[in-house]
Amino acid sequence: MPISQAISILRGQCRVIKNIHLCYCDYDPLAMDVILNLTEDGIRLVFDPISQRLKIIEVYNMERVKLKYCGVHFNSPTISPTNDQIEMSFGATHPGVFDPANQQFILNFRGLSFFFPSNDKLEHNYSHGLGSLQFSNGPPVVSKLCIYMGNTLCETRAPVLPISCYQNKCYCERVQLLKDEGGKVCGVKVVLYGESGSPTKQSDVRQGTLQQEIKFGDSCQDVMSSLGAPCKIYYKDEDKMKIHSKSPEKQLEKEESDYFYNYFTLGMDILFDGKTHSVTKLVLHNNYPGHYDFNIYYRAYFELELELDADTKCCVTSTTKWDKVEEILGEHYSKPVVLNRRSSTNATNPFGPTFCYGFKSAIVEVMPNNNYIASVTIYSS
After folding, report:
1. pLDDT at site 125
2. pLDDT score recorded for residue 249
3. pTM of the predicted model, to two decimals?
4. pLDDT at 374 over 90
5. Which residues contact 244 (CB under 8 A, 6 or more apart)?
6. Whole-number Å distance between alpha carbons of 329 and 316
7. CA nearest neighbour of 269 among 352, 165, 376
8. Rounded distance, CA 245 to CA 238, Å?
9. I need a labelling partner for 176 at 20 to 30 A (CA). Which of 184, 291, 301, 320 fits?
């Protein structure tokens, strides 16, 4: 499940589920997992920082939840999750693993790990299981439970997006630049994945992939034929960047407003000219925590070759840091434009400004606190 879907579900239960904390590493958002901590429910939802999909459900306060397996409770106000109760509910498994650093035993099933604390000084080389050990304070009780996909918790990875999470929408697998015969950027190639198969028989539904091209000058009908209907349409009230235009004609007021097709699940915005109704720009979003647009878009997994001139080029992806781009470009790039986003209803931006660097046919937005790329705007040069 993507983090955006999880947040949407939790928002819908705001009267029941309260005090949710978003935890991430501000200085390096790809170095640590992104966590939604349900503090009043004793549950943590752990998301992979790159794919931004759920990989671990951690229940760290067993007293605040009721849990059942195959219709039978193994944890409730009247049932204590002791080691005997766990073995009775889930059956036999391999002997647990003793963690001497944290003084706890870990009992592993496939996709499930139970943690038992121990204040006793016990050897970790026991061979007859947790139930054969004698505890001075009575039988051990589960202090934490982890649910994941795979054989062991330490090797778990975020699974592919389940069919049940598609919700009749397409998602972005990869975005690459399109160039004409002269090497000029003319659009993007998008690899999509979504539901494929019989719409009436759920068992026949499976993942299907599709490759589409969006080119500058395409009409609204062309784009909708390739990507489907947008999630939202946004009409621009003003263009705050037109002061940087070299053409005086572009600074004149336009009778028709330009507008965006917002494809939130693709992590993409497409700008249309209000007069010709043709594509003029594309914006790819990275959806980093700590950015002003976080949780509006899904991550667009792009692989783009950008160039300042014919001799200065670099390749950027959705995980590239600006430091690496600087190493390639040296001092060839110009000073950035400072972008400070503010909404019409709230004049404050707690995340601060971002820096925008210009390339030939592209503008790269960088978060200064960690130097990761927040978005890339592609246009016809």
Report:
1. 47
2. 53
3. 0.85
4. yes
5. 337
6. 12
7. 376
8. 14
9. 291
